[in-house]
Amino acid sequence: MSFVKLLRAPFTATTSRLLRPSFTTMTRSFSSFTITPTELAAELQNPARSSRIIPVSAEWYLPNDPRKGYEEYTKARIPGARFFDLDAIKDPHSPYPHMLPDGETFAKAMGELGIARDDTVVVYDSPHVGIFSGPRAAWTFRVFGHVKVHLLNNFKVWVEKGFPVESGEVERWEETNYPVVQPDRSIVVDFEEMVKRAQEGKKDGLVIVDARPKGRFDGKDPEPRPGLPSGHIPGSISIPFSELVDPTTKTLKSAEKLQKLFAGKGIDSSPNTEKILMCGTGVTAVVVNSALELAGVKGKLRVYDGSWTEWAQRVDEKSGLIVKTPQ
């Protein structure tokens, strides 16, 4: 099975002749994980020869949104961008969406996308919704030890500033031999650990942050996936990811604004406090991860991979592990 729709189209005389080479602009390293469109545009024109820049679109939409990531990718993308399919580059055996793949699955997908281990990868989101799913893809690269990975803040601004875009179907990329690396599980939280943490209750040195909308956290609004109860894990706090994003530009807010927001939510910025981040399926939890990093908040950052979709299916509502805010 292919991981990206553009890789398995039948070869015709045209497609075989146009076996597409990798996008090979050279660059120096960026100074931070989160970069601006202006920084990326400048680096794409930089003749310095240290590593290639590979733009990666991670455009993805919720199940109740009629738009599809790959279809939108073919309408507008950064020239040479690959498409990282969150619905395909995952654990194929898990009943829960977007669970991390194993090393073999990730390596095969990256090889098919023509990405090499020493490439500089710049992940970006939809031009319509701004920062949303890109952080999850960038985080996945990090879990598998890809050192040079960055998040574009954001593609919406890239388009509005008039930087280059292209459209249409993409021919097959020249494949690479991406090495198999097992995931760094120290920055991932599984279900069993979350149950233990929830049963322990609130304690010093730990904060659990839920990035879903407040109505779903409180148990007032339904989940987008039918049949799932809403509510939250005992002891968790609500920081909807939308509060971290500028309402106009859809970029992550400035470091100063994020610092103030997190302080107001009671987030301990010291290195002694571990932060476990969750959401619906582990996607927007990583928006919080990226915002905490941009704000300079210290402490171990970890993502509950299965997030609420796994939690709400595996715990019994009568157990007290699904809490609804009193009305």
TrEMBL record:
Residue stretches making up the Rhodanese domain: 61-167, 202-320
Keyword annotations from UniProtKB, A to Z: Repeat, Transferase
One Pfam family from the record: Rhodanese
Region (Disordered): 213-233
Segments of skewed composition (Basic and acidic residues): 213-224
Domain of life: Eukaryota
Protein name: Rhodanese-like domain-containing protein
Gene source species: Sphaerosporella brunnea
